[in-house]
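User: My collaborator and I are trying to settle a disagreement about how two of our proteins should look. Neither of us wants to argue from intuition anymore, so we agreed to look at predicted structures for both before our next call. Could you fold the first one, then the second, and keep them clearly separated?

Assistant: That sounds like a sensible way to settle it. I'll keep them separate. The first protein:
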Amino acid sequence: MDLGEVNHQRIKTNGIWLHVVEKGSGPLVLLLHGFPEFWYSWRHQITFLASHGYHAVAPDLRGCGDSDSPLSPSSYTVLHLAGDLVGLLDYFGEQQAFVVGHDWGAVLGWHLSLFRPDRVKGLIAMSTPYYPRDPAAKPIESFTGKFGDGLYISQFQEPGRAERAFARYDYLTVMKKFLLINKTDLLIAPGGMEIIDHLQTPAVLPPWITEEELQVYADKLEESGFTGPLNYYRAMDLNWELCAPWQGAKVTVPTKCIFGDKDVGFDSYGTREYVQGDTFKGLVPDLEVVILDGHHFINEERAHEVSQEIITFLQKLSVE
């Protein structure tokens, strides 16, 4: 698609350089991508938001795209990531921003809203709800205990393991396996199999993405590698330790959640029941939940509907 004129720049924040793409002027909207993506996942929303009077800023999060990629997984905690974003807000001279996140970008949006609600005017979280911290068990121990070593999160823990498995395929095939997931169950490989081998490569592309767009992802991942994005998973237990002071805390900023009804685990893992239930509403009191017909990468698959949901939310908060 034609993005028109966008501004690329590298910004020093929190001791690293982040690459950001921006377009438009007006209230700041941060667009935070997920795994295994970079700013390009917001190509549809960047132009849409700019044309509606907003300053759309889509960073490559640390470890991804053209941003710096620290080596240690311990440099990828939600505190590091939130610090990166506060630095971006300061760079642009904005006290507050609207925050839109998908997948790991949603995790980051939840935690920025938890840590610094004074800097978040409103949050839109896609595909990943806010889960309360379990005070009794670290997440990896809990996940592996429930689902075994075949769970993708468990397989991503050991440095080098997933990288070696991914390397058996070309980058375009790896991106197709992830971006075109149409499984609705959790991503769990059979015993003795790596998750990348378990994922299918569709023979026919869905209508919402082209071979050329997939190649953009593949080319960028070939440049940057997968270790940075995988380090987000490798920092999950450290996140659990560091977030202990926020045990039981609520996310109080105005929030809209957007989910695809065919997302991984949405029904089989109980996500639908959770996000429509009282526990989630208790943790996120100012909450609106929207469920669309679609899969995990809902901001791309349902680009127009998602853009409309974003703009409706931003406009509502702008007049309140």
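The second protein, kept apart from the first:
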Amino acid sequence: MVGYQECTMEEDSRDNRALQLWRKTLTAPAPFADETNCQCQAPHEKLTIAQARLGTPVDRPVRVYADGIFDLFHSGHARALMQAKTLFPNSYLLVGVCSDDLTHKFKGFTVMNEAERYEALRHCRYVDEVIRNAPWTLTPEFLEKHKIDFVAHDDIPYSSAGSDDVYKHIKEAGMFVPTQRTEGISTSDIITRIVRDYDVYARRNLQRGYTAKELNVSFINEKRYRFQNQVDKMKEKVKNVEERSKEFVNRVEEKSHDLIQKWEEKSREFIGNFLELFGPDGAWKQMFQERSSRMLQALSPKQSPVSSPTRSRSPSRSPSPTFSWLPLKTSPPSSPKAASASISSMSEGDEDEK
């Protein structure tokens, strides 16, 4: 029971240390090896790959070492370090970075200097510790100093410094663990792109404010690049105008389609209303017929009612005019002869009327 409790306490202590290390890695840059002491307290026993894969030993992590130049730090570098970090369940990744002197001597000139390359590695999430001025070829003294259990690198033989493979003795000692390269990305590929498109990047930096002296560009090339930048600006303006004009034309076309559609709808409505009024059975025809019948009725004479037959008159004879008899004021006869004369004239008038 006591042994079980001790084992549980050791596991809890190991988990706590791993958690603290993980938090430190995510919240702060990785420390430099020459500014910190080795965290291994127990004797450094040699491990096999099988033991390391099982997560042993309990009292310390497996110390994995990866080295390189890491110029223009890119995703290929990060993926290689990720593989080295995750080779074993409990691992501590040390990364060695070669100095400028060694790199320029054995490999060539770098874009970034050693201080920039050190800082780039410190801020990679998989790195626990950075070793500055790492050796080009690993020696037993270096491996013992940093208590390195395994070395991680791609399995392609790396010929340099007069050797066909600088990791040959590490492989023979059983301390080499291979990783996979990331195809399509490398520092040499990036430099090749820059050299291939040199004019583009020179013009870019001139446009961003760098001087011809800083870019090591001649006077003639500077003028040529600046002129080309002006031409590109004009092309960009023309392109923008073309795009805006296309957008305007598209908007006009859309509006014209809308107007045509509305015009068709209105024309259909107008034609329908016209046919409803003036068609064969339209309301206008009915109204016209009603008004026409009313006008005909108003113009035609009314028929008199049937009366009793009257006597026919001769067409040659016109009806005798009727005279209204009005009383006339006459003066009294002056003598009996005058009175008899007036009476006789009245009687003659009556006979004529008959």
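Some points you might bring to the call about the second protein. Residues 98 and 134 are 5 Å apart (CA to CA). Residues 219-278 form the longest helix (60 residues).
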